[in-house]
Amino acid sequence: MLHSMKSKTIILSIHPCHIEKIFSGEKLYEYRKIVPSDIQNIVVYATSPIKKIVAIIEVDKVLTDTPESIWKQTSKHSGVTKEFFMSYFREKEKANAIKIKRFFKLKEPKLLSFVGIKYAPQSFTYIHDSYNVIKKKSLVV
After folding, report:
1. Could you tell me if 110 and 32 are in contact, meaning their C-beta atoms sit under 8 angstroms apart?
2. Residue 111 — φ and ψ, nearest 5°?
3. Taking the complete model, does pTM exceed 0.85, yes or no?
4. I need a labelling partner for 48 at 20 to 30 A (CA). Which of 15, 83, 113, 117 fits?
């Protein structure tokens, strides 16, 4: 029997400067204008100049509220300035903050084709259970 369950794993494009802040522990939240609330894992694609998959994030939860409320709840571990945050959510009624439970840095960055994707997503893309594939292949540090 075929199962038609939607994947709980997405791929997100994140700028390398924000990825470094995640790795250092300074940034515990990834902010998005649009994100599904039921995600469990994120495959992290580092944007230019790296242009490769560099990590897997296990999601604790997704917070959704007004930008002002999200900033109050997350600013201590945002990894960004209030000005940057407010500019990003300018004219938006809702903001999303993905709380990072833990992350796994890949031993060797991988091309998007590794997870069956041709192009980096503008927002996000669901992918099949790549989290387990990567973990099983012992590709994480």
Report:
1. no
2. -70, 160
3. yes
4. 83
